[in-house]
Amino acid sequence: MGSLFRSEEMCLTQLFLQSESAYVCVSELGELGLVQFRDLNPDVNAFQRKFVNEVRRCDEMERKLRFLEKEIHRCNVPVVDTGENPDAPAPKEMIDLESTFEKLENEMKEVNTNHEALKRNFLELTELKHILRKTQNFFDEAELQYQSTHDVERDEEAQTLLGVDGPHSSYGQAMRLGFVAGVIQRERIPAFETMLWRACRGNVYLRQAEIDNPLEDPSTGDEMNKTVFIIFFSGDQLKTRVKKICEGFRATLYPCPETQAERREMAIGVMTRIEDLQVVLRQTEEHRDRVLASAAKSIRLWFIKVSKLKAIYHTLNLFNLDVTQKCLIAECWCPVADLDEIQMALRRGTERSGSTVPSILNRMDTHEAPPTYNRTNKFTEVFQSIVDAYGVSNYREVNPAPYAIITFPFLFAVMFGDLGHGLIMFLGALFLCVFEKNLLVLAQDEIFGMFFGGRYIMLLMGLFSMYTGFMYNDIFSKSMNIFGSAFTVSQMPFTDADLDNEQSLQIDPQLTYNNTAPYPYGFDPIWQIAENKLNYLNSFKMKTSIILGVGQMTLGVVLSLFNHTYFKRTVNILCEFIPQMLFLLGVFGYLCAMIFIKWFSYTAETSWKAPSLITTLIDMFMFGKIDEDSELYSGQQIIQMVLVVVAAITIPWMLLIKPFYLKKQHEKNALRSHRKYSEVKMKKNNGVGNETAELIHHDEEDISTSSSGSSMGSVEEEFDFGEVFTHQAIHTIEFVLGCVSHTASYLRLWALSLAHAELSEVLWDMVMSIGLAVDTIGIGAILIWGTFYAFSTMTVGILIAMEGLSAFLHTLRLHWVEFQSKFFIGEGYAFRPFSFANNYDHNEERV
Question: Which of left, alpha, beta for 78 (phi over 0: left; psi -120 to 50: alpha)?
Answer without folding.
Answer: beta
